[in-house]
Each structure stands twice: as C-alpha cells, then as structure tokens.
Specification:
The longest helix has 28 residues. 22% of the residues are buried. A hairpin with a 6-residue loop joins strand 1 and strand 2. The protein has two helices and eleven strands. It is 21% helix and 27% strand. The chain starts with 12 loop residues before the first helix and ends in an 8-residue tail after the last strand. By secondary structure, it is an alpha+beta fold. The strands form two sheets. It has a six-stranded antiparallel β-sheet with strand order 2-1-11-10-7-8, with no helix packed on it.
C-alpha cells in the first residue's frame, strides 16, 4: 500500500517477463491438450454426439460452428444476425451490437475475425425462408464454399442485394482464408425433422 493507503502494484521486469512466458505456454499447452482430448475420443463417438445434438434442433436455419473458435450451434431466427468479435485492448469498439461473438484472439490480437465480420439475413420468398450471407467489409474476408465474397460497402445501409449470396443446405463458411473459423449452414425442414 502507498502512504495514502491506496493499493500499489509492484511488478518488476522479471515478473512481467515471467508472466508473459507463462501465459504463452498456457495458451500453447491448452490448444495441444484440447486437440489431444478430442482425438482420444473415437470418431464414432464424436459422430454420435454431433448427431444427437443435431437431431434435437427445431426446424429452421442454423450455423454449426466447426472450428476451434466458432464451436457451437447458432440459430438464425431473426431477420438479421450479425457475427464478429469484441474489440481488443488495441482497438476502438465498433459501437454496434453483435448477435454472436467469435473470439479468435489467441495472443490478444485478432487473427482472422473482424469486429463486424458477416451477417445472415432471413427473407420470405414465395412463402419459403431464404437465408442470405453478406460480408461486412471484414479485414480477412468471408468465404462461401471456398469463394471469397464481395464485401458490402461500409456506408451501405441494410443488405446490398448485389453482394448478398443465398445459402443452401450444407454450405461451408470460412471467416478468413485459412479455413480455421469454419461454419456449416444447416437447414432443418419443417416436414421431415430428424430424418437426416
């Protein structure tokens, strides 16, 4: 404590370097342990667990996160769903709401996911639900089935229909070119739930 009674942190350069080294080692070790843990479970068990989860989904559109930072099931029930990540310590917040946040900042800096990366819009065309994907001028791009999407201009309100692409069942989405932040579009129809 300081003479005025406030708490003062005393952090020597050695402690600082030790903390950095320990954090880096923990990041690396946890990634390797996660991969090792996943591989210890047999493929048949992984398929069974995934199938069990998918069979419980209600009709509608979903993005299934298949990458280490996108893992999860994201229901697309709103007219617009925005994906991105929170700002790091080195960035200003965007000031706009995200529906789902994907954190790929392994060393506390972004890798491939932008603060506002892409959005999915849901439209009704001839009484059918149609989902569209739009890149929101992300830094590393959004890839649909391996093809880089043209970004929507930053100053363009709403959805720019000249760049939005319709999604089909089992389309693959990658946030950035390295195929790490992967998502699969899955459409569960109302007439044959559970027959996948």
């Amino acid at each position: 404590y300081s003479p005025s009674g406030s708490l003062v942190w005393s952090f020597s350069m050695d402690s600082f370097q030790n903390a950095i080294s320990k954090i880096e080692k923990m990041v690396r070790t946890s990634r390797l342990n996660d991969l090792d843990s996943m591989m210890k479970v047999g493929q048949a068990q992984r398929i069974s667990e995934i199938g069990d989860a998918i069979s419980k989904l209600d009709p509608g559109g979903y993005l299934i996160g298949c990458g280490p930072y996108t893992q999860g099931i994201y229901r697309l029930s709103a007219s617009e769903t925005v994906f991105g990540r929170q700002a790091t310590l080195f960035e200003e917040p965007v000031g706009k709401v995200l529906d789902f946040s994907i954190n790929d900042c392994v060393t506390f800096r972004p890798r491939e996911v932008s603060r506002r990366h892409f959005k999915i819009t849901l439209d009704q065309i001839d009484s059918q639900a149609v989902y569209f994907i739009t890149d929101l001028a992300s830094s590393c791009g959004t890839y649909l089935n391996g093809a880089l999407l043209e970004p929507q201009r930053k100053d363009s309100p709403g959805t720019d229909t000249s760049v939005a692409k319709p999604l089909a069942d089992l389309d693959t989405i990658s946030l950035g070119p390295n195929m790490v932040n992967l998502l699969l579009f899955l459409l569960i129809p109302t007439d044959n739930r559970g027959s996948r």
